[in-house]
Amino acid sequence: MSPRMMALAVISLLAALLPAGCGHDGTVNRKLIAIIVPSQDNPFFQAEAVAAAERARALGYDVRIDAHNDDVYTQDNLIDVAIASNASVLILDNAGTDASISAVRRANKAGIACFLIDREIRASNIAKAQIIADNAGGAELLGKRFADALSGKGNYAELLGRESDTNAQVRNKGFHAVLDKYPQLVRVSAQSANWSQSEAFQRTETILQAHGDLNGILAANDTMALGALAAVKNARNNKIKIVGFDGSPDALAAIRAGTLDATILQPAVKIAQMAVDEADHLIKTGTTGMAERQLVPCELVTRQNVDEFGVFQRIKPDKAGE
């Protein structure tokens, strides 16, 4: 028997053991919302999973959270579990823009309303909603901040995200829509650190050895920015300006300490809550009331406004907007 057939057999057995129409606590007719994220260890993905689960439970739904670890095969099996468990809604931060289309289509055909968060797919009219952060707009904000921090001139290195990740490509394009307008800003190195802190540390050490006159490091996420920050600290060079992207708690702490210049907040909590609210609206009225594709603005976080932000969300009103 193939691994996939074995997995399907286990799923069928689990479905047979689950009483029809019952929630995990024995409550009759409580609908199930399945939440699948890339990881439950990564703070960003953990934040979106917890936010979605808390909102769903508050609205009276049963919840199950799983992680596919950016593996399409695991994601397929988890979606099969959701189908076998008669889930009404799937909240999914998917494992691949193109590779996830068939999985979302399968869930949709099984009657599960699919709400994609953080990462979109290149297909329309399959998911009920695709709610993503405006990575392009956020990248342009960060590019402008980075250019200003370097006074529009100097040598900089760029730490790229995983090459297969659409968000990495979108951010890179957004950065350079701004930075390429500054002829005196010279990118002397561009390397992928695959969103990893340890890889970013190693890449930055190598970059610093080759470019002793480095003025700045542009990292496509906070995890890599923190890896770069550790390498720069190790080299005892506190003149290099470093920026990140995501708005992680560790990045906010580094901004408060004055060691990280800026980050971009991706509102993971807001996006996850929006997905659950729209799913609830769909269940109760037959429509989400919203367009399928929804872009949620990102926000620039600096030492001047860092106290307005919490765990991947704004916690205080925007003073500039008052």
Keywords:
single chain, 322 residues, alpha/beta, Rossmann fold, six-stranded parallel beta sheet, four-stranded parallel beta sheet, 12 strands, disordered N terminus
Distance between the termini: 63 Å
Overall structural domain count: 2
Described by strand count, sense and barrel closure, the largest sheet is: 6 strands, parallel
Mean pLDDT: 91
Q: Are there runs of 5+ residues with pLDDT below 50, and where? A: 1-28
Radius of gyration, taken over Cα atoms and rounded to an integer in Å: 21 Å
CATH architecture of the largest domain: 3-Layer(aba) Sandwich
Q: What structural class do you assign from the helix and strand content? A: alpha/beta
Overall shape: elongated
**Strand line-up in the sheet with most strands:** 2-1-3-4-5-11
Instruction: List the secondary-structure elements in sequence, H or E.
Output: HEHEHEHEEHEHEHEHEHEHEE
> Which CATH class of the largest domain?
Alpha Beta
Q: What is the total tally of β strands?
A: 12
State the helical fraction.
Answer: 40-55%
**CATH superfamily annotation of the largest domain:** Response regulator
Our count of helices gives 10
